[in-house]
Specification:
Length: about 140
């Protein structure tokens, strides 16, 4: 299970309770990357959370980083989405989600595990490929 899925679920629940469920909710951890994302889309607004960069938005009237805590409370996300969908600018929210520390730790653990595995795999492949090429060159040079 992706460690940020509980955060996405809490946000989706808050938006649904406010009758603002997004048209699309995507929770992702692309292969080969350590970044995790949450994408909330309505026909006129997109909110994107990244484990690396925090919250951003795209709307017809504005786009860019959002003045929210990295793990903003779902109520803050709901308020922000409502303002953006009404064509207004978002306001600053410092309220952090109650379970942020647990998800933050889970993400750190998952990322370090994934990073160690990816690094070893890439390093092993590069060394093996390099060793094969080097051996061929050495054999080729000695045969000439």
């Amino acid at each position: 299970m992706l460690p940020h899925l509980t955060y996405a679920d809490a946000i989706h629940t808050a938006l649904t309770d406010a009758e603002m469920a997004p048209d699309t909710l995507t929770v992702n951890a692309p292969a080969g990357k350590i970044e995790m994302t949450i994408l909330l889309q309505w026909n006129d607004v997109t909110l994107r959370w990244s484990s690396e960069a925090g919250w951003r938005h795209e709307a017809a009237h504005s786009s860019g980083p959002l003045p929210l805590d990295h793990f903003a409370a779902p109520a803050a996300i709901t308020t922000t989405a409502a303002l953006l969908r009404q064509g207004q600018q978002p306001v600053t929210h410092h309220k952090r989600w109650d379970a942020a520390q647990f998800v933050d730790r889970a993400i750190s653990s998952w990322t370090s595990t994934r990073l160690r595995g990816a690094t070893l795999t890439v390093t092993d492949r590069r060394r093996s490929r390099f060793a094969r090429v080097l051996r061929r060159r050495l054999v080729s040079d000695t045969n000439q």
